Structure formats: C-alpha cells, structure tokens
Amino acid sequence: MSAQNIDIEFRVCVETRPQEVVCVVGDDNKLGKWLPHRAQRLRCVQSADMRPGEEGEVWSRIISLPVSKDVQYRYFTSYIKQADNEDCDNDITITRWETNIRPRVLSTKTCQENGTGKAVEFGFYDGKKSIDKGWLLGHTEIQLRLHSSPIKLWKSKTNEQQYYKVKSTHMDLRYRESDEDEASSEFDDDVSQDVGAFNPQAAVSVAVLKEGQASLHEQGPFGETFCPATDYMVFKAQTTEPEFISFKLEIYLDSSANSTDEPMYLGYAYLLPVNFQQTTGVKSLPINGPRHKPIGQIAVDYLIIKPLKKSACDMKVSYANHWKQRRPLDVGHRGMGNSYSAKKLAVVRENTIASLSTAGTHGADYVEFDVQLSKDLFPIIYHDFSVVLTLRKKTKGDMDMFSIPVKDLNMEQLQSLKTDHHTVLHDKSKDLHEEVTDHEDHLHFPTLSNCFQSVDPHVGFNVEIKYPQSYKDGSHEMDPFFEMNMYVDIILEDILKNASNRRIILSCFHPDICTMLRLKQNRYPVLLLTCGINSIWCPYTDQRCLGIMDALYYAQSEAILGIDVYTSELMDHLDYVQRVKAAKLVLFVWGAIDDADTLNLLRRHGVDGIIYDRIQELKGGTDNIFKMEQDAKMQLPTAMASSSNERMEAGGGLAHHGSYDSHALGSMESMDSVE
C-alpha cells in the first residue's frame, strides 16, 4: 500500500456453477473502467477463512485503490476461457451481473478507518435485488425451436402420441468419443470431452412457451415434456466457436404430461454445423431409432445470433429490464399520427422530423417511429416496405405507377425522388402527388441520426425496427430482405453512437429481431409488438406474436422488458393487464384509439404506455413528464436551502439536513436523464 493508495477487500456471497468465476468491475482503472474484459477476478474463500455471519459460497480479492475517492462498482459471474489468467480476458461470457440502476459505492476513506466487514449478498443493495443475464460479447447464441407439429414417426401408434419428451445435448466436433478406437482417429493427442466441459458457456437450457415453463431453465434428465400440436419449445446454447458445435436431439415416448414413469426411448436426430448455412431456417432431420435405423423425421427451426461487432456497451448502467413506475406514458404514433390510411389523418406528414418534433411540443413523452435500411445501409425512417414511383408514359399527360421496395433505393434516391404512398395503388381517387414542400423537416426518409440531432432530447424514442414476416396465407411482407444480424447491427450501432442520454425503447413485430436486440446490447429495453388475431390483418405465421398470452410467454423466455399489444384485442380482454403485471412485464398498447374515453380507460387499468395518433387532440395538455421531473429536481436544492434557512432561524441557527444526500441527488439526476 502506497501513501496514495489503500488496500480494499471486495467480498461477496454468491453461489456459482462449475467453472464459473466471480469478478468485480467499476469506474477506476484498477476495476476496468466498467469494461468486463478488464475486470478483476475474485477468488473463492476457503471454509476456514469464512467470517462470522457468512454462509454459502464467498468470493474475495484485495485491490489497491486511491485514497479519499468514492469508487463505484458491480459484481458479476462469468466463464473465462483462459481460466489460469488472474484478470478477465477477452474470451469472457457474462452469466449474471448486478443491474441496480445505481452501482455500489464505497468510500476508500471510510474503509481505511473501519476496514471491511462480512461478504455482501450478490445483487442486493439499497433495499433492492436486481440481477440480469449477460449480453453477447465474443460468443454466439444458437437457438433450436420445435413447434407446429414437428415430429413425424412412421409407426401409426407412436405418430399419434400426444406427449413426448425431448432433450438437446451438444458436442464439439473436434473431440472424439471416449470409447472410440484410438487407431481410427488422427487426433490421438486430444482429450475426449463434450462441449459442456470444453466450453461451459455452451450448456443447453430450455423454455416451453406456456404457463410455468416459459422462463429459461435447465433440462431434466430426459429433457422436457413437449406436446407437438400446441407447444413451442426453445433450446439455447452459447459458444465462442459455433462452427464446431453439433446438437443431438433425443426423443422419448411420454404416455402423459403428468406421468412419473420413466419415458421410453424412441430415437435421436443430429443437427450439424453444415445445417447452419443461414441465420435462420428450418431443417428436416431423420430420426434414428435405438438400432440406428430411420423411424421418422423432425423439423427443427434454428436461429443464429452473433455478437455486435462494434459494441459500445459496458457495465456502467443497464435499462434492459428497468422500468420506473409513472403515470401511463403518452407516445406519439409515427409522431403526430398516421397521415395516409387512418379515418382522421395527421396534420403533419408521418415519420418526419417535423411530425416527431411537433408531437413533442404537444406533450408526447415518447414518439414512436419506424426504422429500416436503405440500399446503401443507412438507417432511415419510413413505415412501409415499399414506395410508389410515378412515370410519365409516352402518351402526353398519362402517368403510370409502380411499387418498388425501399431496400432497393439508396438514401440519396429516396430523399430526392418524387414518391407516393402505396395506398394510391388501391385508391385511384387519391392525388398521385402529395403536397410539395421544400422544408427538410417535412421530407420523407429522414435518417435516424438526424432524428437524434433534431428532436428535443426530453422526448424519448420508441424505435420500431422494421423486418418483414410471412403470413399464414403463404404471402410475405418482403422477400428477400437483409440478413438479420447485419441489419440489426447497423441500426444498433447508429443508436448507441448517437442516442447520448435520450430515453430509448426498442420494439419489433418479429420475435427473432427482438431476441437479437436483447442479446446484442445491454443498455436499452425491448418490447415485442403484436397485432393479435382480428379481421383487419392476415395473421403472421409465427405463433409467438399472435395473441397476448403467446407474446407474454415469449417475453418471459427471452427476458425482455415487455409486450406492446393492439388496443382492440386488449379491450376485449382487460383482465390480461393484471396477468401481464403479475408476470412482471411492462405493457404498452398501440392503435385503434380515436377518443379520450378509450385513452382514459386504458390509463385507469394501469397500462405503462399508450401509442396513439393525433396527440394534440387527445392528450389534453402539453406537459412532457421527463421535462417536469427534471424541472422539479432543479428546484429541489433551492427549496431545501430555503427550508433549511427557515429551520435555522426557528431553531437558533442549527441546520438540520435530514436525509438529503447530495451525492445521491447527483447520481439521480444523471441516471434519470435516460430512465
């Protein structure tokens, strides 16, 4: 210990899994400056060194830090590939980390005077326990999904089975089986082991999207019960080297979902790296029986999620699963509302900077808008996947129209060409040309970065990521489209680069995009959008976004913040509001709100956010809740000083500071700027 530094012991109680280690990260250079790969690794304390009052597993390390400095820090658990390294390296998988909005704080001066006490509880401080899973750093997540009656067995009796048990295990193809003839392998120096031992972060977990089983959990000895006709089962594994990972699906016969008898083994199927040629797809695999002969087939839907290459995320703060309870938030739909197909059209063109800014001046707490990519990969704001261009025919005065995908035009073309909305193709009475304006804020296709620069920073952004899906009638919104990982990465990088302290919510109708948004970053929350099942639109093929309960189970399985449902469906099932709340999810609603009575009914039932058109007519005020909170905080020190002076005068000059903590206030101001 030098004159400028003091030895501080970091000591935490946390139960770990095999090969899992505990680390501490913080705002000091010695603590990695919030970067997990530079964090300090703790050591497991021997039972003889446990202190009075300590129970369970304790991890500790003494670190030299500057004297007279408040240090902010967090604990997290992880897998580290090079386990013999004292400090965490780049090959790190975060499994759990403390996500309280304000990090732990210690005063080195206080520690110098009083020393350190017994181990603290992992995740618990300031009266609250908050722990979240990690995000993808250098590793990839592979998901295998079973749904829509995927198992076909050729024997009629077993094919009519209502319940199976399915288990997924994995192997690293670089390692051979332990009982393999050594002479038959060229890898004589390799040690046999499964991928769980070689790469522990790849352990397979499972979720079944139904009541009580939707949260991710470990598999049973025979896997999990699966009803092919109704269930949606998801297996997940993470690995740093997906090109070597294969999966084995084992299928058992289960006479009843509640049976306690050991299930009968039916067969197995292999999914090899060669099957993962695309980001997502469905593979039909042969099921081999106990005698290694084909007895049927299984359709496996897979998804490959890669880490964000240029991640700006660290462990300073996360809002991925944080929600501060307020009144229901007012969110301007496409800014001031739909300006093409609604009964009452918006007064300002939708999804333009003018529309977003105008909604803010009329009291929108958030504005919702749609983001997709141009051909040259710029994130631009536009709702539909296609636009209509008008061409003059050879015959004088005649015009022709044709639709072209937004993705096939670069940003310069989109912003300079004369375009029409796709509704003109179906309604010939519409004017082919919209009102011409030269004002940049009113033009179509503003860039996402320009929106961040131009709209009042107090106005939050509900960024809906557009990505096409297939419909149950066999049609598709847009096919082909951009590769998912690249598409999401470009949009996320733009947001992380330009958002600053603005409040951000990410959302999408496509469940796989929501999964990627959740795993590729740790900063912003994600909502799954759902249309429900109604007569207005043809339903999507993906059952996870059809009904409110389907969306709820999906949100639980991916640990996203919540769901955003179509208003009409919720109005028919208002009891679902409490079911969503009981699941500890956030609930937004969107669309089909034409009057203040509907708006107020939703508010009374306690939804968290309402996305609607014509906010200037329906909101009934111009107050932005975040601006009001900031103004109140700015006035707090003045009010407290005035109150303190009054007490001093009344009490003979003695100031009573009460419970006011200036450090806490400063933290609150900085955090609440994006809360």
How would you explain this protein's 3D organization?
The protein has about 675 residues and is of the alpha+beta class. Helix content is about 20%, strand content about 30%. The protein has an eight-stranded parallel barrel with strand order 24-25-30-31-32-33-34-35, surrounded by six helices. Strands 13, 14, 16, 17, 19, 22 and 23 form a seven-stranded antiparallel β-sheet that branches. The longest helix is centred in the C-terminal third of the chain and has 26 residues, at about 625-650. It is globular and about 90 Å long. The relative contact order is 0.09. The model is unreliable at about 180-200 and about 650-675 (pLDDT under 50).
SS field, number of helical segments: 15
Oligomer: single chain
Roughly what is the average pLDDT, rounded to an integer? Answer: 85
Q: Rounded to an integer, what's the Rg over CA atoms?
A: 28 Å
Main structural class: alpha+beta
- Could you say which overall geometry the principal axes of the C-alpha atoms support? globular
The main β sheet shows up as:
8 strands, parallel, barrel
Strand content of the residues, in percent? 25-35%
How many strands in all? 35
Contiguous uncertain segments of 5+ residues: 178-199, 651-674
Instruction: Report the span from N to C terminus.
Output: 39 Å
Helicity, as a percent range: 10-25%
Give the strand order, joined by hyphens, for the main sheet.
Answer: 24-25-30-31-32-33-34-35
